[in-house]
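Same chain as my last thread, 172 residues:
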Amino acid sequence: MKRVILGMLVLSVLTTFTAISFAADKKKAAPVEVAPAVPQTLSGVEIKSKEQEALGILNSRVWTVYLKLHAAKKLVVITDVLTFSGTGVVSQYLAGQGFGGSSYSLSIHPQEGYAIWETVQEGLEGASAAWRGELLGDLLRGTVLIKNNKGIFERYDFSTNVPKDMPLQQKR
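reply #2:
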């Protein structure tokens, strides 16, 4: 009889530990893998609407931008004024150096919905300036790569926001 009671006690203890262990394993469920979010692409109608909106914003005012020489050891900042008219753009700073205005292309980022504009302006004696800008609400930012008539390139980052680390100066 003692053996039966001892056997039942051992069996009871083992059953209890097994049940507790099984319950703990159930709580440790395998992590659920979440698929990365697929970016939504704008429809053709939405893109056309955003293009018209961007054209209206670009043409609605004169844009003061600050060109900051990229990766320069000494801070060089140029204050420029960009004027958009229809599908053309003029840089006041570059016009003073013999560059003409130019037509620009406008596209809309298909997922993010912001406007991207690009143009190349021709200067004297083979000089050129390639602009790529983004319109994000009231912020205009981008880069311009200027090639002088000697074939030397300078890259500038530009923005309508005044760089925090600069005293404004006009480059000659």
